[in-house]
Task: structure prediction
Amino acid sequence: MKIEYAAVNRIDLMQREGDYPPPAGCPDWMGLEISGEIVEIGDGAKEKSKWQIGDKVCALLGGGGYAEYVNVKYDMLMPIPENCTMAKAAAIPEAFATAYLNLFYEGKIKEGNTLLMNAGASGLASVVIPMAKAFGVRVITTVLTDEIAEKVKHLKADRVDVTTKEDIVSVLKEELDNSHSVDVAIDCLGGEVMGKCIHYLTHGARWIMIAALAGQKTEIDLKNIYVRNVRIIGSTLRSRTLEVKAQILAELVENVWGKVKTEYYQTERELYTELLLMKSLNLNSIRTSHYPPTPEFLNMTDELGFYVIEEADMESHRFASKHAGDDSSNFALDGQWPCNKEDWCELFIDRIERMIERDKNHASVIIWSCGNESGYGKNFDAMLKWGHNRDKSRPVIYERSCVIDNACDTEVCCRMYPGLKDIDEELTTNGFTNVRADYRVTGVGNGYCGVLPEDSILEKNIEFVLYIK
Result:
């Protein structure tokens, strides 16, 4: 496989710290799940599978996914679910296989059962909860604060317990009294509270321990275990045999792939069609506001001959500075705006560095942008200087730097929403020469740089005008 994306898991971090060695025979470096393209197939795989060179797949590994290419046994591959990007697909194999293992292999969960999934804001919970709901399971989960509860609302758990306000032990006792007791618990926390919870489960319940982030020791009344026939199960995916993992992946494709739904995004085919439409209307340039696009997008703009202003992932709005229109200290951090906080400078530079290093070989990119609507300060000076030094073949710009006195020099003035008076002022007074006028479609959230088929871009006045000295 040629790897396009690799996901990051907690196990990777533990392995890096020396706490979780890879299985025997696996590479020493990290990387449990990837997505990419099949570029070569061995004779055995040709005989035993239907995979073809060029197939887009995701894969479960024992390690070694942080690489450019990887050898994978044919039954460790899965097709990309419908309407799923390659980036998202890379985050599927480990999490989905772990969820499926613990729900159905260990938990033997059934429609109408009740599940307790601790740590509802965890990465695994983001898969376990909707997967359980898709199979008709009632779900209880735990979080620490109301703010976190709001953030996990989209997972559609039936009950979210904010543990700083209501003890989970009391919740489980209430559920037992109301005949909704927990049949299966998946617990990554453990600790003292685990031993208290286990008294209030369904007869024959399964409590599955997958980690012990809240503590490795607890106290359990053993009489309760055998009287209520409760089973405590330790479970990790990594320790399973390749045969078991292969069976889990096959069942995922058969039983779960049809239920996988991601939020709408443009497929590559749809995007390509719209770029062709833009070309037919003589719309030849795009600004990727306010984050770098997917590499697939830039491959298309290279092929079709667009001019692209690629923008770094930097947009803070009210956490900006007085130059953004709000000089209230209510939105400063530790008395300083982010764009002027010295200890944030490396983070600002990191945003432009990652963008340029990833996309510097795309011919369609003609200008780099440091971001947008984030005020102005010395951290943007640092971003501009880093960009100028790293890539001397392209202009590097920041939207506010051309309108702030004493700002770091920028080759291009890139004004947001200028009126005709503003355009005239830049051309006649400030020494800029008009290169071209472009549009910018405002934050539509479709994941591909704000490109939309609607004619809304034609109904707006000029929103994005580029000038050059």
About this structure: Residues 418 and 463 are 6 Å apart (CA to CA). Residues 242-256 form the longest helix (15 residues). The chain is about 30% helix and 20% strand. The two ends are 47 Å apart (CA to CA).
